[in-house]
Amino acid sequence: MPLRQTARLDRILWPLHRWVWGDFDRRVRKLIAFSKVEGDGGRDILRAAELTPDPLLRRLYLEHAIDELRHSDLFRHRGAALLQLRATRSTSLFNTNPLPGGHGLDDLTIKGEPDYRLLAFLHVAEKAAAGRFEIYREVVDDDPATKAIFEEILRDEVFHMNYTYTQLARIRPKGYRRQVWQARASRLWKRYLRLAAVSASAIGAVVLTAVYFVVLAPFAWLAKRAERREPVGWAPIAAERHDRPTSQY
Ligand SMILES: [Fe+2]
Ligand SMILES: [Fe+2]
Predict the structure, then answer these.
(1) What residue spans of the chain are helical by DSSP H?
(2) How confident is the model at residue 236, as a pLDDT?
(3) Superfamily covering domain 8-194
(4) Where do the domains of the chain lie?
(5) Contact 63, 122 (CB under 8 A)
(6) Which chain residues have CB less than 5 Å from ligand 2, an ion?
(7) Ligand 2 center to residue 157 CA distance, Å?
(8) In angstroms, what is the span from residue 126 Cα to ligand 2's centroid?
């Protein structure tokens, strides 16, 4: 499967990736975030190695987990080295990253998952990561040390992408393609849910701001106008409102 084909969307988003990686603070934050995702993914795959009944898969999962934990160290050390270069905080307006993370292993679920489903998920995630890291390698060409890390990690991700597919075809000779499609659909659905949550939050903020300025300001003005009509100080109560003191109301 050609890698370039997998990263078509990321190719379209190339200028956005360039913008994200162009800012020093965003670059550091991305590296630290990647370190966390790779580390968590590595630990999950280590757990999968403990649970699988298949000896060959256990060995491959173990190798895979060691790779991911090493990636985590590489990203963390590079992020820390960049931070030491400049400790001041950027005042850039958009410090958040609008693009999804590199690996997608944060969606990984091990408990109760059969090997074929896990392999399909890993294959799709590794393929996406390989495509994305290929782009990142290009957009950080002003930073040779970070570029070298992406080059090194990319080789591992291609191996992960290939072994998961081969093993999936071995343990699920009939229907391994369907498993990959299901994993792809599930990944897309999770992406959609994330996007929907972000959009809902943005729409909520816009609506509440509009309510604040459109409804609250006229209400405050009317309240102030009514206050001006009220007499100042004590005011006598109308005679018809003099109720008996024994009355409850
Ligand atoms: Fe990785
Ligand atoms: Fe990987």
Answers:
(1) 3-6, 8-12, 14-22, 24-51, 55-85, 115-139, 144-171, 176-211, 217-229
(2) 75
(3) Ferritin, core subunit, four-helix bundle (1.20.1260.10)
(4) 8-194
(5) no
(6) 126, 157, 160
(7) 4
(8) 5
